[in-house]
Protein: Aromatic ring-hydroxylating dioxygenase subunit alpha
Organism: Actinomadura montaniterrae
Amino acid sequence: MAHFPKPAEGSWTEHHKIDKSPLSYADSITPEHYELERDAIFRRTWLNVGRVEQLPRKGSYFTKELDAARTSIVVVRGMDGEVRAFHNVCRHRGNKLVWNDYPREETSGICRQFTCKYHAWRYDLEGKLTFVQQEGEFFDLDKSDYGLVGVQAEVWEGFIFVNLDSENRTPLREYLGKYGKGIEGYPFDKLTQVHKYRAEIGSNWKLFIDAFAEFYHAPILHAGQYMPEEAQKIKKYGYEAIAYDIDGPHGMVSSWGGIAPPHDQKMVKPIERALRSGLFGPWDAPDIGLDEWPPAVNPARHPHWGMDSFVFFPNFMLLIWRPNWVLTYHYWPTSYNTHIFEGTAYFVPPKNAFQRLQQELAVVSFKEYGLQDGNTLEATQTMLESRTVTEFPLNDQEVLLRHLHNTANRYVRDHQREQSPAPAASATS
C-alpha cells in the first residue's frame, strides 16, 4: 500500500473529489428515511457481530439483536469447528429460538443443540431440524425441509461478519477492500483482555460516527480532560490529522500521537504520570511480535503517528493504537433518532496489578470522552429535527463525514431504483 500523498489540490476533500457544498442532515431526522436505510444498508452489507474468542469451543454460541435489519441471529461454532450464523427463529411457529429470561436481551453459552422453548423442536449446530415433538401429528412433514435459515458468515482476522442478503455475491475480504487487506497480519489474537461499554444514545447512528471521524471538536468539547497548559496549547493550534483516505464505501483517518509523554510530562494529569497511561493507552507498549506495521497501519510511516481509525461501512470502526492495543466501535440503530453504541477495548492480558491499572485508566478515559460525545449528539439530534437550519458547512477535517452521508444516501438511492418497477414500453405504430 502506497504512503498517503499530500493533497496537491490543497485539501483532502478536493483530493478525494468530494463535493464541498454544505451538507444536509435530512438523512438523519425522519422515520421514513430510516426505514429505507434498514433495507438498503443493514440487510445488504457485511456487519461485524463479534470475534472468534466469543466462540472458544465447539458448541459455543452467542446471539446478536439486529434491530435495524429486523432480525435476531445466533452465531455458533459447529462440531466441525466452523463458524455459522442463522436467523434466530424456530421453523414451527416463528418463536425466537435462543434466549434466556428476556427475549430482547442477547445471550451466549455452549450447547450440543438448540431447543425451542415453545414446542421443543430441536436443531443441531449445523442448523438441521433433528426432532419434532409428536411428529406423527403433522401432515407429510419432511424435517429436511425445515432447518434453520442460514445467514452468510465469514471471518476476517478473527472478526466475525454476517451478511443478511441471500443474493450477496461479494466475499467479505473483497468488501473490506484495501484496508482489510492492508491490516491483515496484525496480531489481534494476542489482545484477549477485553473491556466493553454499551450505551443507548438519543441520536441517529451516523451522527456518532461523525463525532469519531474528526478531531476538529476535540480541543473544545474535551477541553476539561486536559491539563490547563495542554488545553490552551491545543485550543490555540487546533488539532489536525496526518492523513485522510477513502476506499469504496470505507474511510480512515491517521492521527498523531497527541501531546503525551514522553514529550512533556507536565502536560498530563498526575494520575497519568503515576500510572504511565491515559487516553492513548499505556505508555509502555507490550511486545506483540510485530517487526513492522502492516501496510495499512500508519501508512505514512510517520515517526509521530499515534493511531488509525478505520471506518468500515456501515457501522464498524476499528482503531489501532501505537501502544499495541485496539478499540472497536459499533453503532446499532434502533430508530431514526436512537441507536446503541458499543465500545470494546482489547489489550494484551496484564502480567501484574500495575499493568491492569494502566489498562483500566485508558478504558475509563475513553469512557469519559465517549460520554461527552454522546451527550452532545443528543443535543444535536433535537435541533436537527427542529429543521430551523437545513444546510451545514463542513471543513476539510470533516471529509469522512461527507463521505459517510454520501455513501449511505447512495445505497438508499440504488435500493429505490432496484425496487422501482421498470417503465412500461411505449406503444409504437
